[in-house]
């Protein structure tokens, strides 16, 4: 339709019209046809500032930041002076520490052209500076102090920036100094307290609020969920006078993240009965929580809702679904979702690689990596973590070494501690302990406790007491209170019949006050999560009264808790999910 309109405009010689061209550029921008939008701009021989602004805004709307700034520099090169809107559009493209110098450049231009008198411009500057890390917040504070005129937006932007940066005492001081406050003022400081986990202060402020809206209530529900107080989160949720999709998403995700399956599913069903329709944000949030806790039952419910309602899934939504199945054990579904993504991005490939790695399909992961390269995708550091983890779980030592060396040589990606951790784990599992030790000593950064713990686990696997002692020496320096490290070496002495050193190790543990804590386990059965073996067995006994054979199945799972030595062992099935966390072992790819 827009192409036909463009053709008609060209026939009528209206493409030079200063009123028509901006409208056409804006229309093409909304339809993501930026090549056509640029073509319209290029048809105008003498573009004015309004036309340049329209093009800059179009580029930013389509996440083409470099092209937006290129248009700005082209405008200056052609002697067209920017106006206040030019800088407002450019500032919208700046976010994060890396943009601080760009924002400072824009600030200098604003001062040069004298646009600080327009309150919208310095307000936008304060807001953008606040998104550029602590240094940016400092620059925002300086600007705020020198402003001759401040409105409520100036105050809110500064308070919000300080709250996001964790400068809560300064944010509260400004809040208390405000002559008048609106809902944004109250919600900004409330959000700061909630994100910092200071829920007592948040609740006290909430009680003082003259008016509360859905944002205020949702902020408290989110804050209590994040600190693990689901009782208070639920109480605040139930007391809400009005609920939209946001608080429903927060409370369901909160329960899912904590592995409280029954409540999460019950609330999800209630939300659907109340007629609320999922959006991209809600789906991604709930699926991410399911992936984190292994709650596949709720994840499948969300997937069923997507298919039943014929929800038009974006790539990020499909990536979240892919990640959930990869982490919850549904490998067949992982392939189905991955193959159904029409426009795969790097996250799609990375999620698939990590899924194959988690399930020990090293050869398939390497084949997928090769396929990804042939498809023209450039791997990033996350890609290489996935591939190296796949090699580790399949003990493909030579293939892992080859991938590790290609990282920097072919793609210019400098290995980080996570990549070293994968390689050390790989070499350790493969019995190449001295090579692993050499790699640790060659690391450009200081090895952390996870690196040395990985080596210690490998030493135990291959019964190398000499190297285990060296790894323990380093671990004691970094984390002397971890009992698992002492227990590993003590048990190695016992296995070798070295009772004297074993006794000395136990005495050393007592002398520094180290006591080994019991491991914890949980099992999800019929949408219920049970913790510790006693509960599992009691649950099985109750189920046996209704269904024969239940006890033997549950005892088998309980027994696996004590016989598994893999550190984080996952058993996934249609009826149950079993998770075990051992104090004595660790996985580098999981903890780094």
What secondary-structure arrangement, pairings included, does this model have?
Blueprint: H1 2-11, H2 20-30, H3 34-43, H4 49-61, H5 65-77, H6 84-92, H7 100-113, H8 120-129, H9 133-146, H10 152-164, H11 168-177, H12 183-195, H13 199-208, H14 214-226, H15 230-239, H16 245-257, H17 261-273, H18 280-293, H19 296-308, H20 315-328, H21 331-339, H22 346-358, H23 362-374, H24 381-394, H25 397-411, H26 417-429, H27 433-442, H28 449-461, H29 465-478, H30 483-495, H31 499-511, E1 520-525, E2 528-531, H32 533-546, H33 550-563, E3 568-572, E4 576-581, H34 588-591
Antiparallel strand pairs: 1-2, 1-4, 3-4
Helix pairs in contact: 2-3, 2-4, 3-4, 4-5, 4-6, 6-8, 7-8, 8-9, 8-10, 9-10, 10-11, 10-12, 11-12, 12-13, 12-14, 13-14, 14-15, 14-16, 15-16, 16-17, 16-18, 18-19, 18-20, 20-21, 20-22, 21-22, 22-23, 22-24, 23-24, 24-25, 24-26, 25-26, 26-27, 26-28, 27-28, 28-29, 28-30, 29-30, 30-31, 32-33
Task: Provide keyphrases for this structure.
592 residues; 4% strand; globular; disordered C terminus; 4-stranded antiparallel sheet; single chain; 34 helices; 4 strands; mainly alpha
Uncertain segments are 539-592
The count of β-strands is: 4
Estimated structural class: mainly alpha
**Overall morphology:** globular
Helicity level, as a percent range? 55-70%
User: In what range is the share of β-strand residues?
Assistant: under 5%
Largest beta-sheet characterization: 4 strands, antiparallel
Overall pLDDT: 84
Strand order of the largest sheet: 2-1-4-3
- Beginning-to-end CA distance, first to last residue: 52 Å
Number of contiguous helices? 34
The value of Rg in angstroms is: 29 Å
